[in-house]
C-alpha cells in the first residue's frame, strides 16, 4: 500500500505516523538524504535536506500526493506536482 506525501508551501513532508522511515526515503534519493528537523513535534516528519533530491520514479512506486493544495495542482499528476518540490 502506498504512503501519503503531505505538501506544505515549501516542502514534501513524510510523517512518522504514516509509517515513513528514513532508510526507505533515503533509498529513493538520487542525491543527499532526508532528515527530521523537529523530532519533538507532536507529529514529526522527514523532509529533504537542502540540495538533496529524489528519484521520483522510485518515490512514486511507494507514495502518492495526499493534498494537492493549489487549484492548478489539482489538475496535475502526482509526478508533475512533485517535480516542483524536488530540489
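Sequence proposed for the structure above (87 residues):
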Amino acid at each position: 500500500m502506498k504512503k501519503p506525501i503531505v505538501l506544505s508551501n515549501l516542502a514534501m513532508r513524510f510523517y512518522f505516523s504514516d509509517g515513513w522511515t528514513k532508510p526507505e526515503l533515503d533509498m529513493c534519493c538520487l542525491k543527499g538524504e532526508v532528515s527530521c528537523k523537529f523530532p519533538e513535534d507532536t507529529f514529526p516528519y522527514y523532509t529533504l535536506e537542502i540540495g538533496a533530491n529524489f528519484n521520483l520514479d522510485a518515490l512514486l512506486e511507494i507514495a502518492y500526493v495526499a493534498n494537492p493544495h493549489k487549484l492548478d495542482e489539482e489538475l496535475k499528476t502526482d509526478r508533475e506536482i512533485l517535480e516542483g518540490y524536488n530540489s
